[in-house]
């Protein structure tokens, strides 16, 4: 009986937690709501992009047999992203109120598991000939196409000889945002590129935050010589221009999105380390931290249970701006022509627009607008978050 | 006719949709040349009342649905009675500073740090006397500084606020307030942030100036000792209402309202004394009694670094050659003014601050020089409780977690279930409810938080607790409860306490032995009755004499 009472009380107590209050306050304003809606839309697009824009039917019936060609052509990345999304939803809705740490651990383990399993069993389809699917359509009894019936790398060679087309010109093959110089559908490429924009934002910022929190935390807690050395390291990293480092690394290691994420992460942690260091220097003097030392608690608990949750708020603000700048960094690289070669990204699409002989407005406006909107959305959320955790604004 | 009459004043504050009746139907009057003291606990509305009189509350959030504040406004020759609530902003500006002046609690922040103190006094003068020439204003400012007994006023004139001590800054504030010779001085806790010896001087100064200038004073305080020193009349406030007004002697000796009686009974001087005979016998057995904690020639120095190379040029000697014994089962009070090193000594004993030299032993075991791993078993034996109820608890942790985590680290209790049970028992021991376990710190009042802080210290069942000013931030009635609780727990658990405080009255009530510190050195130590009753050291004598007593 005691136990059930305790857990009920625990649940009640959780609901008044600090983070929840901050989140409520952050998303009470219009700016943050718009930002969240845009990022939410991007998330949906990124997760379900193979089902939203693809040249193959979602469902088709041939001689009474139902088949889903889309599923056959999913690659490992698609499966991992989908799995991560659904595991996240399940964990979010789970009635079992575990601690944040266990939930995070379960989430990470599930993703690693799915990645390993799908690497084993999924056969990557090489050299897909998208024209075949359009020829195949005649043989189906009925079929259901995705909302945008073109894959990002489907250059429609069977449809027309002149690849470049403005939006909504061809009444037979409708391109809402036109096509690019190779004949690919711009909307389809935009949808698939949203995955890169989101992924680079989250992963690069995540890497930077982990490094920044650990180094900054140690600097702030131990101060003294650790702090002096750590701050010099921070200054060294701050003096390296990220863009040129990225250029060098791309030249060395080739054009991989993952290497880009890691490099952006490795070079942008210094800001987070500074924030956490300052917070920890302040917290270290606080009585409740002194009490934990007096109680002989282990360093891990002092740093991560007692100090970090109290000092993490400014970090979240910095992170929301960091996501925006990581997206910009990738866009810049792609714009300079050093981004990914075949998979589309918004920056690369802008690059295409510049390179083409005449100005085709649809090739510049849509990806440019998307970059602008995404960076703007993260900045809106960052601003709202900063206001929400500012105790002085709270009073007024 | 009275100088100031407040009639049925109501001040309502709007905060987040709620209306707080901060001042609710308050009436009183102040005669010319009289000192009126407003006493009350925090949140009773005494500061809001003062700000209402001088009309300094932001109009956006405050309103006066009723009442009058009648003030005799002395313009050049004539005097005219005005209602402060009905005056326009220009008239108010003429009155503020020149006819009604105000001094605030915090001497650190009430002066502008980028101007010289003399200029700030001159500015106040020039503002209200537009015809004054700079030279005359300068002379009057200097005269005002001499009046508040600032030594060497001419050279202090060009100092910046940070170059002055807290007491000197408060004197500058008073000089500024008095420069225009106001009829009414409102002093909002002007001595609360000051040390007791400085407080005594400032109180004497205010009293002397008031008598010389026939000025009225509205003095706000929470300290009945100060009331007894300075007030002609006293008003007791509770939750926005003035529950009792009367002559000081009458109210202090024979309070008529139940709330005033309760407040006065909670003053440490008036708390029921403990059985002193028991104390005497233990005092005689002192020789047999083993010392639990000992320090020998303990030093804690903080280096002062200068120059580009950050060379150490000198040390701040926070704790300087301190040798003390703390006997088992005793409450030892450590008294001193701010900066005397008493908190640093407490922390150095617990190894929260690394000593520069010397030794600290508990149960005969040396603690100095042990690594944090080697210290861990000793951590269980000695704990600390802190002054500030706001920062002493982790705001992001449930009370349950705060209490059980140290238990878990020290292997107390078999499983979480048992530890929760133990934590609930500790909460009951500090007279809190069991289900407070499932709350966060922000849901508690200051007194409750101090009890939880004490519960955290008790959770690992220590033998020795350092109580660092644990009642200083509390109202007097809450302080009384916490002190009584501390005595009870000491009896039940056979604890040894080092009670760090600046409040002599608390020392006299609580402690068995007293140690007096000044500038890092121990100047006197012995039984409390000896140290407080018959001080030998000149500094201790001065300290004891400066304590504002209720029955002086």
* Domain module count of chain B: 3
Which CATH architecture of chain A would you pick? Orthogonal Bundle
How would you state the average pLDDT of chain B, rounded? 87
Low-confidence segments of chain A, given as residue ranges, are 1-5, 7-16
Provide the β-strand percentage band of chain B. 25-35%
Number of helices of chain B: 20
**Structural class given helices, strands, pairing of chain A?**
mainly alpha
Low-confidence parts of chain B lasting 5 or more residues at pLDDT below 50?
A: 283-288
| CATH structural fold name of the largest domain in chain B | Rossmann fold
Strand residues, percent of chain A: under 5%
Please write out the topology.
The complex is a heterodimer of chains A (396) and B (552).
Chain A: H1 2-14, H2 18-26, H3 30-47, H4 49-52, E1 59-62, E2 65-67, H5 69-72, H6 76-93, H7 100-121, H8 130-136, E3 142-144, H9 186-222, H10 224-239, H11 242-253, H12 257-267, H13 270-284, H14 287-294, H15 299-311, H16 313-335, H17 346-355, H18 361-389, H19 391-395
Antiparallel strand pairs in A: 1-2, 1-3
Chain B: E1 4-15, E2 18-30, E3 35-40, H1 46-53, E4 62-74, E5 79-83, H2 89-95, E6 100-103, H3 117-128, H4 134-147, H5 153-156, H6 166-178, E7 184-188, H7 196-213, E8 216-221, H8 224-230, E9 233-238, E10 241-247, H9 248-253, H10 258-266, H11 276-284, E11 291-306, E12 311-327, E13 331-335, H12 342-349, E14 357-362, E15 365-366, H13 372-379, E16 382-385, H14 399-409, H15 416-429, H16 446-459, E17 464-468, H17 476-493, E18 496-501, H18 504-510, E19 513-518, E20 521-527, H19 528-533, H20 538-546
Parallel strand pairs in B: 3-8, 3-9, 6-7, 7-8, 13-18, 13-19, 16-17, 17-18
Antiparallel strand pairs in B: 1-2, 1-4, 4-5, 9-10, 11-12, 11-14, 14-15, 19-20
Helix pairs in contact in B: 3-4, 3-6, 4-6, 6-7, 7-20, 10-17, 14-15, 14-16, 15-16
């Amino acid at each position: 009986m005691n136990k059930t009472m305790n857990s009920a009380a625990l649940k009640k107590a959780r609901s008044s937690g600090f983070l929840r209050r901050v989140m409520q306050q952050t998303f009470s304003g219009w700016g943050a709501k718009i930002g969240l809606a845009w990022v939410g839309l991007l998330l949906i697009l990124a997760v379900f992009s193979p089902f939203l824009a693809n040249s193959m039917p979602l469902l088709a019936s041939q001689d009474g047999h139902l088949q889903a060609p889309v599923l056959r052509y999913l690659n490992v990345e698609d499966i991992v992203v989908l799995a991560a999304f659904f595991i996240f939803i399940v964990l979010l809705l789970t009635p079992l109120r575990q601690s944040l740490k266990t939930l995070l651990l379960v989430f990470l383990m599930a993703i690693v598991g799915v990645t390993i399993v799908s690497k084993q069993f999924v056969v990557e389809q090489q050299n897909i000939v998208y024209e075949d699917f359009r020829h195949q359509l005649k043989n189906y009894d009925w079929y259901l196409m995705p909302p945008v019936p073109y894959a990002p790398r489907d250059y429609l060679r069977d449809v027309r000889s002149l690849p470049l087309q403005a939006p909504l010109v061809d009444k037979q093959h409708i391109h809402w945002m036109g096509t690019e110089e190779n004949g690919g559908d711009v909307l389809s490429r935009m949808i698939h590129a949203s995955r890169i924009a989101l992924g680079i934002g989250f992963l690069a910022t995540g890497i930077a935050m982990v490094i920044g929190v650990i180094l900054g935390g140690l600097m702030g807690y131990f101060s003294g010589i650790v702090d002096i050395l750590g701050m010099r390291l921070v200054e060294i990293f701050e003096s390296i221009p990220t863009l040129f480092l990225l250029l060098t690394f791309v030249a060395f290691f080739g054009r991989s999105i993952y290497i880009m994420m890691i490099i952006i992460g490795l070079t942008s942690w210094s800001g987070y380390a500074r924030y956490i260091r300052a917070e920890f220097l302040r917290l270290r003097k606080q009585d409740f931290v002194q009490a934990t030392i007096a109680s002989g608690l282990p360093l891990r608990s002092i740093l991560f249970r007692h100090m970090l949750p109290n000092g993490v708020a400014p970090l979240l603000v910095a992170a929301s701006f960091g996501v925006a700048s990581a997206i910009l960094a990738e866009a810049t690289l792609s714009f300079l022509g050093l981004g990914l070669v075949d998979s589309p990204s918004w920056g690369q699409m802008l690059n295409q627009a510049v390179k083409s002989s005449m100005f085709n407005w649809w090739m510049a406006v849509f990806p440019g607008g998307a970059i602008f909107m995404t960076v703007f959305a993260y900045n809106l959320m960052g601003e709202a978050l900063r206001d929400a955790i500012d105790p002085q604004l709270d009073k007024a | 006719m009275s100088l100031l009459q407040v009639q049925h004043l109501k001040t309502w504050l709007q905060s987040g949709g709620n209306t707080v009746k901060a001042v609710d139907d308050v009436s009183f009057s102040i005669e010319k040349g009289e000192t009126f003291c407003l006493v009350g606990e925090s949140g009773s509305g005494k500061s809001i009342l003062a700000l209402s009189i001088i009309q300094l509350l932001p109009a956006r959030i405050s309103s006066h649905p009723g009442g009058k504040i009648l003030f005799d406004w002395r313009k050049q020759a004539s005097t005219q009675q005005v209602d402060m609530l009905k005056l326009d902003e220009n008239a108010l500006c003429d009155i503020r500073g020149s006819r009604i002046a105000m001094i605030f609690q915090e001497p650190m922040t009430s002066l502008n740090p980028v101007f010289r103190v003399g200029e700030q006094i001159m500015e106040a003068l020039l503002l209200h006397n537009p015809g004054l020439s700079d030279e005359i204003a300068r002379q009057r400012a200097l005269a005002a500084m001499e009046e508040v007994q600032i030594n060497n006023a001419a050279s202090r004139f060009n100092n910046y606020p940070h170059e002055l001590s807290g007491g000197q800054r408060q004197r500058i504030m008073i000089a500024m307030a008095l420069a225009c010779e106001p009829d009414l001085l409102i002093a909002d806790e002007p001595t609360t942030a000051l040390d007791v010896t400085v407080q005594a001087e400032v109180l004497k100064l205010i009293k002397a100036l008031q008598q010389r200038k026939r000025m009225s004073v509205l003095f706000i305080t929470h300290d009945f000792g100060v009331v007894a020193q300075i007030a002609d009349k006293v008003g007791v406030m509770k939750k926005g209402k003035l529950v009792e007004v009367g002559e000081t002697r009458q109210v202090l000796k024979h309070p008529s309202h139940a709330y005033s009686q309760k407040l006065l009974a909670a003053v440490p001087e008036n708390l029921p004394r403990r059985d002193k005979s028991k104390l005497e016998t233990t005092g005689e057995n002192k020789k047999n009694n083993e010392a639990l904690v000992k320090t020998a020639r303990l030093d804690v120095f903080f280096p002062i670094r200068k120059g580009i190379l950050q060379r150490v040029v000198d040390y701040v000697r926070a704790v300087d050659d301190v040798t003390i014994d703390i006997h088992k089962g005793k409450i030892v009070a450590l008294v001193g003014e701010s900066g005397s090193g008493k908190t640093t000594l407490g922390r150095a004993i617990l190894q929260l601050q690394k000593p520069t030299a010397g030794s600290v032993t508990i149960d005969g075991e040396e603690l100095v020089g042990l690594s944090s791993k080697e210290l861990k078993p000793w951590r269980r034996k000695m704990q600390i409780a802190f002054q500030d109820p706001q920062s002493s608890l982790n705001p992001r942790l449930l009370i349950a977690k705060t209490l059980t985590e140290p238990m878990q680290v020290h292997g107390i209790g078999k499983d979480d279930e048992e530890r929760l049970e133990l934590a609930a028992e500790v909460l009951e021991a500090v007279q809190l409810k069991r289900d407070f376990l499932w709350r966060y710190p922000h849901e508690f009042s200051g007194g409750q938080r101090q009890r939880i802080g004490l519960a955290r210290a008790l959770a690992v069942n220590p033998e020795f607790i350092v109580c660092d000013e644990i009642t200083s931030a509390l109202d007097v009635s809450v302080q009384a409860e916490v002190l009584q609780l501390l005595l009870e727990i000491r009896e039940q658990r056979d604890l040894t306490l080092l009670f760090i405080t600046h409040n002599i009255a608390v020392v006299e009530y609580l402690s068995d032995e007293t140690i007096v510190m000044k500038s890092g050195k121990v100047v006197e130590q012995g039984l409390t009755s000896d140290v407080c009753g018959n001080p030998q050291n000149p500094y201790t004598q001065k300290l004891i004499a400066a304590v504002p007593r209720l029955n002086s």
